Amino acid sequence: MMKFNWNNPYPTIRVPVMGRNVVSTSHPFAAQAGLKIIQQGGNAIDAAIAAAAALMIVEPVSNGLGSDCFAIVWDGKELHGLNSSGTSPQAWSPEYFAKKYGTDANGLADRPMRGWDAVTVPGALAGWEELHRRFGSLPLGDLLQPAIEIAERGYAMAPVVAHKWAAAIPDLRDQPGFAGAFMPHGRAPEIGEIFRFEAAAKTLKKIAKSGIREFYEGEIAEAITSYAKNHGGAMTLNDLSAYRPDWVGTIEQDIQGVDGKTYSMHEIPPNGQGIGALIALGILQNFDIASLPVDGVESQHLQIEAMKLAFADVYQYVADPRSMEVTPEQMLDPAYLAQRAKLINPNKATHFNFGLPQSGGTIYLSATDEQGRMISFIQSNYMGFGSGVVVPDWGVSLQNRGFGFSMDPKSANVVAGGKRPFHTIIPAFLTRQEGNTTLPQMSFGVMGGDMQPQGHLQTILRMLSYRQQPQAACDAPRWKVNRDFTLDVEANMNAATVQGLSNLGHTLKKIDDPYMDFGAGQFIWRLSDDIEDGYVAASDPRRDGQAAVY
Question: pLDDT tens-digit profile of 267-323?
Fold first, then answer.
């Protein structure tokens, strides 16, 4: 097993925690909600559902009842991948948007970032239903009780959530239903102020009693679609009732650890961007990263360049898999990635174009239990508070994932009815090979838009190539490649490294906003092959979170 260096060279307010049952989330109430379920006899998947429900109440800036979700589950024997991202209303097309909003200078349809015409079918609750049907052990109603109690009794506002909540008000206060739900005193709640969410409690009680299909086919569905119709939205009862999540498995990339073991990093296949982390990791297998200083210019430069190459392909090819021109297998072909690796100049930053493979606002949580089950789970409303639309009386705040579509008819990601858009949220999982046996090693993820695959890459290399323990790998300063290939660097990054990257030609920014720009992760690492030894967990100090264990 990996022998970590347990020292942490970075300033931090967190220490790694260890236990046989772990729930690690971005808010203490959610972590405790999940742990409570395990103590009541539930398993890790039950705990994840309970924590996910609680996070919709205590961190609504990031997720809500109208979110999407993805999950990777180790059931004790094998790995499963769930895609529960929503599909677009059947009425959507480039012509739909052009007729309503006109066209831009290139003749492409304009579309809104917020409001009803950014909302795709919410997939999160259907995802809970699938996870519970396949792996749950306690009744669904029991799993929702902690969130219901929090919503009804209220909770004191945490600092990071309060900051992001206030920042969202100017853009969203006029969206349908937003002020009534999230501006209880005509403003955002302040740090330490009590916020209650009775409308969301009502919805959770309803589905606890009648089942989650109530959200897609019953009274709640009727309320959602009626509100859409009254405000110019295209979503119908048929759009909601037809929705089902998909079990899609995982895609993977091998990496050799400094301990001599072969590990595999797993991601959900497209329409998500997890393949970007795997592409970058595969490119870096052509370099001896472990021989370079962990925080030095050379190591960071190679990682950045590999990520830029990955994004060039991701933004060109990733879409609903039914529309993609190439397959994930082609994008991850080792010969292709070796060819891409040759484009990296160790002494100069490069702006890369996409290659030609051979034809042929988010929350993340992780939970594990003492029987060996592990779940990597993520759900999101996309940008802070998503669309800004909240269905009155039910507390259903809706995502704005429709903004992830392209309006270009030539794009694989062009908008169409019943289609999944390009998605940013991605859970991850690490396995280890021992002979012909695949063993679970770590459930992990880093939330935060385009930062997610970059956070996966940076943290996994720190652990597997440099033996940094999970909390140190989590705490370390990060960089982020932007859509225009400029580079954000975290304010506490080593000054000599930052200067060295600039000298290599990287166009640098330095933005002190860790919530949005550099992600926030949760990591649970299995300590040994003997499950009795338990796990070590890390929770990102960039959020209000906690890893709760016993």
Answer: 999 999 999 999 999 999 999 999 999 999 999 999 999 999 999 999 999 999 999
Q: What angle do CA 466, 331, 412 make, to 5 degrees?
A: 130
Residue 286: burial class (beta carbons within 10 Å; 0-12, 13-18, 19+): middle
429: helix, strand or coil: strand
Question: What token pair was written down for 538?
Answer: 């890390």
Stretch 332-345: mean pLDDT: 97
Tell me the three state secondary structure of residue 124. helix
* CATH tag, 251-362+424-514: 1.10.246.130
User: Which 3-state string (H, E, C) describes 112-150?
Assistant: CCCCHHHCCCCCHHHHHHHHHHHHCCCCHHHHHHHHHHH
Q: Of 270, 520, 207, whose CA–CA distance to 380 is shortest?
A: 520
Per-residue pLDDT at 448: 84
**In the Cβ-directed half-sphere of 246, how many Cα atoms lie within 13 Å?**
15
pLDDT in tens, 109-168: 999 999 999 999 999 999 999 999 999 999 999 999 999 999 999 999 999 999 999 999
| DSSP designation for 483 | T
The overall pTM is greater than 0.85: yes
- Crossing angle of the two packed helices 44-58 and 198-210, in degrees rounded to 10: 150
68-to-258, 274, 482 alpha-carbon distances in Å: 36, 15, 24
Summarize pLDDT for 82-118 with one digit per residue, the tens: 999 999 999 999 999 999 999 999 999 999 999 999 9
CATH 1.10.246.130 segments of the chain: 251-362+424-514
Residue 401 near residue 85, CB atoms below 8 Å = yes
Q: What is the distance between the alpha carbons of residues 344 and 347, in angstroms, rounded to a whole number?
A: 9
3-class SS of residue 336: helix
- Stretch (H or E) spanning 68: strand 68-74
Strand partners, 80: 73
